[in-house]
## 1
Amino acid sequence: MNRVAESAQLDRLFFALADEYRRGMLDRLSRGPASVSDLAGPLGIALPSAVKHLAVLELGGFVVSEKVGRVRTYTIEPKALDAMEAWVARRRKLLNSQFDRLELYLAQQTRKPAR
Amino acid sequence: MNRVAESAQLDRLFFALADEYRRGMLDRLSRGPASVSDLAGPLGIALPSAVKHLAVLELGGFVVSEKVGRVRTYTIEPKALDAMEAWVARRRKLLNSQFDRLELYLAQQTRKPAR
């Protein structure tokens, strides 16, 4: 994936999580595959609304779906979580280097003889 | 923070990340505090646009700002990264338990004597 495509994928990934119902669906799917009605029921939302939210999650790379007979089953896709973990870990690393540099700077300032 | 407020905050947190410019600003801020023009310049965006993106990041809890004289300086807020790490870690745990249960189930099936 090139940089532009990767960035667009991160947009879709984070956008998918910016909604309580979609996060609720992911929590349910973390416990195993489910159908649209399994997912809509506990959240108290209508099926067409659930289908739209699932499409956003699918675009974000969080779920895959498969239709067997008349029932479409949704399964969580762990790769999206990997991508998020990688993103968060990189920011944490950048942030820690900033604090390390600050600490080094403060240590150097403390060691300087008073003039 | 109650559950509703916490969920609304997660909405704002993930929405803030669903944009390449805002993620670019966070990368820059991970290396140290910066002014609006420091942040707008490298991204090639206009100052009013940068101000809007920074307001979204501030709502998401990723940055704090302080005005000294005529210059407003933005600093990264590590707590938002903590909240994200907690969210991701919880989903990873749920997902791993799902795989553990699946593994246990398969192991039990394998052990069953053929009838």
Note: Chain A touches chain B at residues 7, 10-15, 17-20, 23, 26-27, 30-32, 76, 78, 81, 84-85, 88, 91-92, 94-95, 97-98, 101 (CB under 8 Å).
## 2
Amino acid sequence: MNDISTSKDMHIEEHLGSSAFITDIVIGMSDGLTVPFALAAGLSGAVHSNAVVITAGVAEIVAGSIAMGLGGYLAGKTEQEHYQSELFREYDEVENLPEIEKSEVRVIFEEYGLNESTRNIIADELAKDKDKWVDFMMKYELGLERPDANRARNSAATIGISYIVGGLIPLTAYFFTPTPLEGLMISAILTVICLFIFGYFKSKVTGQPKIKGALKVTLIGIIAAAAAFLIARTFNNLI
Amino acid sequence: MNDISTSKDMHIEEHLGSSAFITDIVIGMSDGLTVPFALAAGLSGAVHSNAVVITAGVAEIVAGSIAMGLGGYLAGKTEQEHYQSELFREYDEVENLPEIEKSEVRVIFEEYGLNESTRNIIADELAKDKDKWVDFMMKYELGLERPDANRARNSAATIGISYIVGGLIPLTAYFFTPTPLEGLMISAILTVICLFIFGYFKSKVTGQPKIKGALKVTLIGIIAAAAAFLIARTFNNLI
């Protein structure tokens, strides 16, 4: 029994851990590849200096990695605070409205087809230990897992670094070309290849059809860049 | 009993719904306020034309809102696919390894202090209906809720729109000023006020200390803008 429990816990850990980590990399890298690429593309149709494109790209990577990292950190913090406030409320309810909480336990198991006497036994036995009862209600009534304290920090670092790595790729082309439009051509080729590889990798780890997933990611990068190019040029002609 | 169940379900719905919606707005708006502000600030120290700053800002908002929306959409999709693959595996395990699955049910309730005979009754009763058994394992063993099919789409729209709204605020200053550095001054005042208001609102809905939360959000915006300004200017002088 204990072996099953331990191996299952590790299995769940692994699943949750890798899924969250991969989600962070997917978000960070895809935005990092997409936004500086699309920004540089947008500026390439509107300005005549590679230095301006690179400067804007670098400013974007600095700002974006801080904001993305912060986004992950805030989301993690919010999740943690939400858990704490719900925990406080469950303790309050278990203390002051135990009969209502017990009937909530019975309702949970009614949904899974357990018969009435079993539901009563479960509710009565759970009520013997208030800490375990609250733990049960948090997870099984509200569906809330206790958030990992390190999770928000790790998530912030992963997203921020993924963003920088992704963002530098499309900019490199502008260092070795004389004009923004030539830079854009090389940058587009380089970025589209990376979007495809990244999309393929992403699809593989998430168990999706690989080629279809890769094409989807690539297409969205191209759409963002084309939209930025067209709108930036239109804006630049108007002002 | 039914009344309690219904009101509790609505209560949970409301909690989950508003929390996810608020998280999306928090991410979209904070990045929308922060990144175009910081990008414009970075360019203000390096270029001499407001038109370039505005063009870059607009390109960034277009690219950022598409990428952020896409980020939310992909994260939602990934969550949905993860659920499907785990569901498939649980059905397989219930079908082919029922005794192991039953002992996993017993382990779950051992953690909550239920005695052995109760654990056996629960495992045996659950095993009578395979669909409900799998539902139970998904939620209570793996902690996975069936993802809302509309959630990914709504999340993408919320993040994208929040990003555009947030991003246009810092740019407006550059329309009405003659030079980027003057634009930056007005933009910084405007954005800092909005970051503070937004931070206050965010802290209020998430139940944090309001003034402290507002100052935290504002400070991070200022750090991103200052970092972008300094690094963009250094880069511009080097190339």
Note: Chain A touches chain B through 92 residues (CB under 8 Å).
## 3
Amino acid sequence: MHQLIHHIQKITGNRDIAGDNISQFFETKTFKKKENLLEEGHRCLAYFFVVKGCLRLFFTDSNGVEQTLQFALEDWWMTDLNAFRSGRNSAYTVQAIEETEVLSVTAANYDLMLAKYPVIEHYFRLVYERAYAASLLRIRMISRMPKDEFYDLFQSKYPGFIQRIPQKVLASFLGFTPEYLSELRKKNVKSK
Amino acid sequence: MHQLIHHIQKITGNRDIAGDNISQFFETKTFKKKENLLEEGHRCLAYFFVVKGCLRLFFTDSNGVEQTLQFALEDWWMTDLNAFRSGRNSAYTVQAIEETEVLSVTAANYDLMLAKYPVIEHYFRLVYERAYAASLLRIRMISRMPKDEFYDLFQSKYPGFIQRIPQKVLASFLGFTPEYLSELRKKNVKSK
């Protein structure tokens, strides 16, 4: 729990958080590399905070290709948020890219925790406000930026990603073919 | 103010909101068609809630073309949220598409209001949670969906938009040429 409490303190600036009260809402779980935390077409029953490791969120397109739309490293939250909010089946699979430890919260506990602790409401307002603001930049990058500029910007904003994520998965996330990504990387190494 | 109070009640389910307390943080402003509420490169000093009308958010690309990334109809919030949060200059222009009435709040008043009224914190947590969840679907549509399917889905989700928004602006938002959009519309009319 220590890491989530630390993140709440960091985001809200509030040092006065009773970790014991918050921890009752969570379960700690560990997933192996390539293990699924949530599966497309199944009920979305939990929301995950990454303590250590890395997750990806993907769907399988009509050609059977896995299309990765999001990653979550340490201190990030991940689930199919629409399905989690509505109690419907998930449109996505969430999978561990490395061995990953998460804190898992059910929808019922998420609601209880938010209703009971104003600092948690404040924390999630800030988490979503940031994430929503960042999504506009992502939409701009995906839809309006030449692919090589997009890669350069992505690399400068998230250098940790490029090292940790398998080439094929990263290419899918960026909307590139693996061959095109490999060319870009070679060009980048040369120009350094 | 009536419309914002109604929206807060609708989103939070809380009927017990003191409109007088909230209204002190806002100014009502009216903008003519094509008037700018916020300009690219200028300080982002306000956040807008649309009471009546329609706004768009765009930037001007290196070819001098206006690229529209977002719209806001009634009950939607709009600003360059990154710039508003940080106090930096805006990367976008916000412009009225029709004559538009907004409630405008400064960053200082936004923070005050959130700190003072837990129901407002709750409201914005839900507004951003929804908006962030919706942004994932938008990213999926933009990056992974054939253009004609994207248009069909957009039309079914937001039928009001298609009528109210100028063709050229809608094409820019969808990432189409105006000619391609015009073809899609003709095809749609025929197939009905």
Note: The radius of gyration of chain A is 18 Å.
## 4
Amino acid sequence: MVAQSEQARTQQAPPNPERIFETLNAYQKTAALKTAIELDVFTAVAEGTITHEALAKRCQTSDRGMRILCDYLVINGFLTKSDGRYALPPDSATFLDRRSPTYVGAAAKFLALPEIMNLYHDLPAIVRAGGSLKGEEDTVEPDSSKWVEFARSMSGLQRIPAQALAGLLNAAAGEKWKVLDIAAGHGMYGVTIAKQNSNAEIFAVDWPQVLQVARENAEAAGVAARFHELPGNAFEVDFGKDYDLVLLTGFLHHFDQQTIVSLLRKVHAALKPGGRAMSAEFVPNEDRVSPPAPAAFSMIMLGTTRAGDAYTMSEYDEMFRKAGFTSNEIHRAPGPQSFIISRK
Amino acid sequence: MVAQSEQARTQQAPPNPERIFETLNAYQKTAALKTAIELDVFTAVAEGTITHEALAKRCQTSDRGMRILCDYLVINGFLTKSDGRYALPPDSATFLDRRSPTYVGAAAKFLALPEIMNLYHDLPAIVRAGGSLKGEEDTVEPDSSKWVEFARSMSGLQRIPAQALAGLLNAAAGEKWKVLDIAAGHGMYGVTIAKQNSNAEIFAVDWPQVLQVARENAEAAGVAARFHELPGNAFEVDFGKDYDLVLLTGFLHHFDQQTIVSLLRKVHAALKPGGRAMSAEFVPNEDRVSPPAPAAFSMIMLGTTRAGDAYTMSEYDEMFRKAGFTSNEIHRAPGPQSFIISRK
């Protein structure tokens, strides 16, 4: 009852344009968080540098700049402030202190690249045209250094979902697996499976420069001997055959449905009877507006691809069935992505 | 009790990087809201165009672009969606439907200009330097067309606070007032006083091109005969003397404290004994991090000025006293600004 009357009160509040103006200035939130990560403010606070003057000295900035930056981070929940002293709330301590094993700061580099942010200055034209003004090559360009940067900056972030996936597949049971990792990127999904299952052989597809990042991760995990490279474009390279498992992590969303179905046919052909395709994807509910994180991913696809999307489960189900798969199951993953397990 | 245990549950939630990623993508919120305003989506929905296909047709966009844009606006609270049909929540109906008398869409143009947004790509360098890399002329440039645009886009938005101020000063009592409106911009504060008090004469200071916008507003309000122009830089122009009231609306925040004090001395000299200066300003609490809207204004001053700020009331009090004022009162205004009334 308390919660309900609170809600009723809020709904009766007089109209207020504050959130409109907050949103028109929201680009400053991106800039401030990225700047604090770049200046390593969170690590400095975690190590006990807690006034703006001391932080300015340590991070080699002006007093005024550091004070305004830190206060703005407090307003947005990334620092706390008490008696002029800053501290880290739990999420910042876990994800923004460079010394934390779950540090995600490296991903900030990729997510808020000025050249990606600038695409959105043209959003009215993008909405008119129906997709990226740059053309498909922007996404699937053969040797885009963007994807090397992406692979490097995202590996840390994908450790937890990769472990969740290996657990979901029961990799540790040690069955003899031939695994195809399509658009492997950082390679963390295949590498984590290989680490948990010493009878798994991984065949990774991606551009040669990107596979180098995956190979580094395979070496670091001690599974390089079972890590094989299939360099090239996933639509053109010969996958080989008789796979037990095909990984499609964060790849399908870049394309239109017809293109996805044609790729899935190729995946289907490469699988053993009874083999499984495992996709990690941003899958909103059928209403396309919830939960917020996977639903909002469609805005990234609108700005950066010609026809990619955050597809719903019914859309994925239809695409996999068209390609010959017999059943599809969805599992929520840690973070905004879901796992879809599709059986041949 | 219900609310408390809900809070406890939230605090014990496992760490989640979702808000970090949401913030790294927050620039897309700015772009989406601005785009929807530019395409006039909110007006179209208000007029009964409620599916994405129909909206695409009416706003001359692609289906895909309109669907993703509208869903993203739902995720961010600017539209609602039910069975594939969009509707306006109360704040959007009040402020984003072009036919509403309180439409604020014109302000979006100025607040999210690409050239202002791009300044924040350099935020690390700005924090190091302590202020705008562009130099003071960016703010106080004599004939910046930016300020003409600003004056035009902000007049609608300032109608409500301008009426609140005229009420606070009891303009309607009709005392004979000589009013100086410094950096008048759209002129709405002085014009509203003149409209409510037919014995008020307004003397407006700003660049000639900007005063033209103020004059248009004075004419529209039927007070042009009592609207006088003092074109030029507020720091250099001769104000004249014996003013009952000096208006300083949204101006002081652009400067450092020493510059403000020197301007306030000039204001003090122009006032009659017992006359009042009335400032409209973003004044956070002494902690500088609350309330969020005036506190976050300091980030705009960091990016766009060399030494401006969202000053606290104790700082304004000190500046006004240094300039000779005897008392200062603060009044919360509708919206993020406060009124400071300072007596000679």
Note: Confidence is low (pLDDT under 50) at residues 1-11 of chain A.
